[in-house]
Design goal:
The protein has ten helices and no strands. It is mainly α.
Length: 256
């Protein structure tokens, strides 16, 4: 069997993670670190098994999943056409770009109190926060994609009497796919952060609320379970986007 570079990399990654977990377990067992501050991997595993059997955990997870899904999908549905069209059309870009630029540099978490006052501590405020945090990486990636189009390719298409609609659908849109997927990946990470932070500061349910509750009661093992759930969710979504990116990378025109 041929040993490929990818297999070697996988083995190295598995070994490094295993060594890290072993050292972590030894540090906890030998009390090199206070158990109040950090739990051992074995303790976290025990807590995870217990929590996964509790209906309350799945209720928190369901609420968080709903908040993130709705907010993130709304961000994609609105940000992609706004970004693509503003990057394609000078007049539309002049209309919306001042607002996009101003809101982009505004720290979204600083307006969390305003969002809570306007939408309450229910799922609505977290959906709005996820939307705001996810929107700008996606819209700006779409704008960048349109601004980096190969102009020689567009001129060649116009030479062959291609219409603006044909150029837009056959050259511009396929060229945006890699940029859009990168923006979606960044927006996804920002959306997860927004969801957790929003639930930690103003919520009565959700993974972030669960983290705050366990942290305040010094239940670090259960708190780490919540952190791992968020981490695994982010990794899974990133993997899905990577698969989509690999599948649709052929959409990008060959400019060579």
């Amino acid at each position: 069997m041929k040993i490929t570079k990818e297999k070697i990399g996988l083995v190295i990654s598995i070994v490094s993670v295993s060594v890290f977990l072993l050292v972590w377990e030894m540090a906890s067992v030998n009390r090199w670190v206070s158990p109040i501050l950090i739990s051992s991997p074995s303790e976290i595993l025990r807590e995870a098994i217990w929590m996964l059997q509790q209906p309350s955990f799945w209720n928190h997870a369901k609420i968080s999943a709903f908040e993130f899904s709705v907010g993130f999908l709304l961000a994609m549905v609105i940000a992609i056409p706004v970004g693509v069209f503003s990057g394609w059309n000078f007049y539309f870009n002049s209309l919306v770009n001042p607002f996009i630029s101003a809101l982009y540099v505004t720290p979204k978490l600083t307006i969390l109190p305003v969002i809570i006052i306007a939408f309450g501590i229910g799922v609505e405020s977290k959906i709005v926060l996820v939307f705001l945090m996810s929107f700008f990486p996606i819209v700006m990636s779409a704008q960048k994609a349109m601004n980096t189009l190969d102009q020689s390719l567009i001129k060649a298409a116009r030479t062959f009497t291609a219409s603006e609609l044909q150029i837009f659908t056959t050259i511009a849109l396929p060229s945006t796919v890699p940029f859009l997927l990168n923006g979606i990946r960044l927006g996804m990470g920002q959306g997860l952060i927004a969801m957790v932070v929003g639930e930690m500061f103003a919520a009565s349910a959700g993974i972030g609320f669960m983290l705050t509750n366990y942290g305040q009661n010094l239940q670090t093992g259960r708190m780490f379970v919540g952190v791992i759930v968020i981490t695994l969710t982010g990794l899974a979504l990133t993997y899905v986007i990577a698969l989509v990116e690999k599948r649709f990378s052929s959409w990008k025109p060959d400019l060579h």
